[in-house]
Amino acid sequence: MDSFETVPTIKNLRALVETIRITELERCLLKIKHDIPKKTRRAIKDLSRGMMNKVLHGPMEHLRCDESNSRPLSEILKNMHALNRMFSLETDASILEQKIRAKMEQSRKES
């Protein structure tokens, strides 16, 4: 099984956090006005993007469902449902769950 079925949750979570990052970054840059050089602005943007990626790394790892992940299907599904619920993501988790279960069953049959 690959991470394809969890992609909508990953995309929606990433988009939500990116929107928050940009909003807060712009608010910060407005407060300090144009008093900072372009290079410093770029460094601040890079810092905020790096922080976002670091924060998202853990949740994304818990949504992985490929050969390198030894988590059971039930745990991956719980993680996906939890993220959808906690962040009010617009992901149809029930359809994704059915796809994940079908793919896992197919993988077992092929083994």
Automatic annotation (TrEMBL):
GO biological process: tetrapyrrole biosynthetic process
Annotated SUPFAM superfamilies: Glutamyl tRNA-reductase dimerization domain (SSF69075)
Cross-referenced InterPro entries: 4pyrrol_synth_GluRdtase_dimer (IPR015896), GluRdtase_dimer_dom_sf (IPR036453)
GO molecular function, one term: NADP binding
All copies of domain Tetrapyrrole biosynthesis glutamyl-tRNA reductase dimerisation, residue ranges: 2-89
One Pfam family it belongs to: GlutR_dimer
UniProt protein name: Tetrapyrrole biosynthesis glutamyl-tRNA reductase dimerisation domain-containing protein
Species whose genome carries this gene: Coptis chinensis
